[in-house]
């Protein structure tokens, strides 16, 4: 997994690079806008981490350049959480942002979440037509739609909210793996500001089961692993 890091503060960059490499990420570090623009096309990256304030420009320009080349996930590092900075970054296609000073564990969690959302974190189990099949549930990735096949073979579309759909994808992208509530909360974190806490997560899991399970009180798709979390079997 290769990451592109644009950070002009050497102290921050060295600490980040060290921590990321301990997590088995390969990191290419650049310090300026001009260096970023000239270096980016030399490799293929799974995710870019971009500082906004640079000595010769800003990270917005670099993000615009990167997104014009390919759809690589981007996380901004910003010294300000001012709404205008956040909105500007998101409108350019950024996937997330982290405010300085930040805890390294927070950034690691955000990186893993963005990679999972983009399909880089794990195999997404999608077939060549972009359809995930989980028992009688079909997820049409390109259309962000979910169909439920009944006992007669007829398919009816389930009306999921954006967060319910994101929760279902989080489970599907981690099939065969127990997901803790904390992991699910990371995936449910919403850059648009919709706060999801532990109690809200319980509500969303219940609503999702009500919409996709034949018997929500005895679920066979999203199973509870007592004391650990939830799992969808492979």
UniProtKB/TrEMBL annotation:
SMART domains: REC, Trans_reg_C. The modification 4-aspartylphosphate is found at residue 51. InterPro entries: CheY-like_superfamily, OmpR/PhoB-type_DNA-bd, Sig_transdc_resp-reg_C-effctor, Sig_transdc_resp-reg_receiver, WalR-like, WH-like_DNA-bd_sf. It comes from the Bacteria. GO terms for biological process: regulation of DNA-templated transcription. May play the central regulatory role in sporulation. It may be an element of the effector pathway responsible for the activation of sporulation genes in response to nutritional stress. Spo0A may act in concert with spo0H (a sigma factor) to control the expression of some genes that are critical to the sporulation process. This is Stage 0 sporulation protein A homolog. The lineage of its organism: Bacteria, Bacillati, Bacillota, Clostridia, Lachnospirales.
């Amino acid at each position: 997994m290769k990451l592109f890091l644009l950070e002009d503060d050497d102290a921050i960059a060295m600490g980040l690079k060290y921590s990321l490499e301990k997590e088995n990420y390969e990191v290419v570090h650049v310090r300026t806008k001009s260096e970023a623009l000239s270096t980016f096309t030399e490799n293929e990256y799974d995710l870019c981490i971009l500082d906004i304030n640079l000595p010769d420009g800003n990270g917005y320009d670099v993000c615009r350049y990167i997104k014009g080349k390919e759809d690589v996930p981007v996380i901004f590092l910003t010294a300000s959480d001012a709404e205008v900075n956040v909105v500007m970054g998101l409108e350019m296609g950024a996937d997330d942002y982290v405010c300085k000073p930040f805890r390294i564990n927070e950034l690691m969690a955000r990186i893993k979440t963005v990679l999972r959302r983009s399909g880089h974190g794990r195999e997404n189990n999608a077939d060549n037509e972009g359809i995930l099949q989980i028992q009688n549930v079909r997820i049409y990735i390109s259309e962000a739609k979910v169909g439920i096949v009944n006992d007669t073979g007829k398919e009816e579309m389930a009306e999921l909210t954006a967060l319910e759909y994101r929760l279902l994808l989080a489970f599907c992208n981690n099939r065969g793996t127990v997901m803790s509530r904390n992991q699910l909360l990371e995936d449910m974190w919403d850059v648009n500001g919709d706060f999801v806490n532990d109690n809200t997560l319980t509500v969303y899991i219940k609503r999702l089961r009500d919409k996709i399970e034949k018997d929500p009180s005895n679920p066979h798709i999203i199973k509870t692993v007592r004391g650990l979390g939830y799992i969808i079997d492979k």
